[in-house]
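Quick start: read one record
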Amino acid sequence: MRVWERLDPVHLDTLKEIGNIGAGHAASALAAMLGVKINMKVPQTGILLLPEIPTLVGGEEDPVACVEFTVRGGSPQQDILLLTQESAFLLVDMFLSRAAGSTRELDDMGISVLTEVGNILTGSFLNAFSQFCNLTFMPSVPAFAYDMLAAVLSSAFLEGGYFSDHALIIETEFFSQDIRLQGHFFLIPERRSPGKDIFFFRDGLKIKEG
């Protein structure tokens, strides 16, 4: 039995709770940076095959913004934040105190904003996982891409073959008084050896395959 098939509703509820804790930390950090109230929540978490990601986020030719990290430490993984073009532009408007709809293309400032959001969100989620699992995580410098969804995913991990063929998704909602938008955070564990995946849960519980 593959490790992903051994997840039960209790595990998924735990993952959602960890996601909510991470989202809370991220909201506090973003609010402190902006000086305005930012709310975040995690509507759902789940496990899916990598080829299923495009159907969840959008069409393969739809433009998306991607912030990607390679994470080393107790549970090596690849972390990716995906935002649709509309959500990415609205986030830039929100963070630069512009009227919604002002951003129509990404410049250096917009890229910097989205990269920092990805950095804060990833750090907050990893800190929450670290507290629950007593593991240390060391994320890389973030890499940013803005392209069609298929091209971004192919560049990020589909061609590498180094990570698991499944991903944990943490659906994330950002909202303020006037704006509500959605992002998708994906955690893809490293495949340690053929047929073996590793994951982690509350109180340091590890489920291994092989």
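The chain has one domain: 3-204.
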